[in-house]
Amino acid sequence: MQSALDTAGDEAAAIYTLFLVMVFGGALVWLAVVALLLYAAKRREVPWREVTAARLIAWGGVAFPVIVLVTLLAYAVWLLPAIRPWLARSATGLRPIEVTGEQFWWRIRYPAVEGIPSFETANELRLPVGERAVFSLTAADVIHSFWIPVLGGKVDMIPGRTNTLSLLPTKAGVFRAPCAEFCGTSHTLMAFSVIVMEPADFTAWRSAQAAGDSPRGGDGEHLFARYGCAGCHGVRGETASTSVGPDLTFFGQRQTVGAGALANTAENVARFIRNPSVVKPGAKMPAFDMLPDKEIAVIARYLVGLK
What is the band of 213 on the pLDDT scale with cuts at 50, 70, 90? Predict the structure, then answer.
């Protein structure tokens, strides 16, 4: 789901309230202007006196719109702390989740907390319902924009600069989050899934992620290493860590392939491996169309099986 009008977070609810108030205020001004227009266009046998016309313009065309607009501005300023709770990080003592925008995917790093080691994942963000999350946002290449419509407003991700955002999910569910700043040829194919879970489920997921995955062996892992996939993609417990491409630990749990480009199925993974730039123009991953289809299928099944 991706709709700023169907909110699932405190900040998004505040923005939605502001939207409704602004629409109501704008409608009042519009109705007043239309009413004045119709009233002024009405045929009269006796022309208006200059004093009457000036009074009508002053009150209806100046005073009323100014009063409404100043009221809306004051309300927006009053509501701003709920839309952008910048002090949430210091107030709660939370360590931020680090999110880095890259062409054209999302690197997500969860910090160590309460004895659970830090770990990295990609293109899928999981959060506990009812608990505030703080994000540390930056970009590796060009400007991106972090936006989860159902949870709150957007914040730009700028190379060399770190911005902070705080969000409080209030409803469990699976939501879509697009990049909100044009960042290249596959900008429209750069999205991530947001899964808001019950706190106990989130803690169990986080612990399992931090523990990594036990080595499986088999043809899929062998081909993954043989053809150099492990040089760019890490799988904890099976390969050395790397910072080149997305981490693929527990890849089979993810909703999509290629940061929202395709559903996560073995067929789609094989399609992406064969020629990523066909699925996602501008992708930095090289094509592996020189490999036999059977071996690509084995690697795809291995990745989808990482659960």
Answer: low
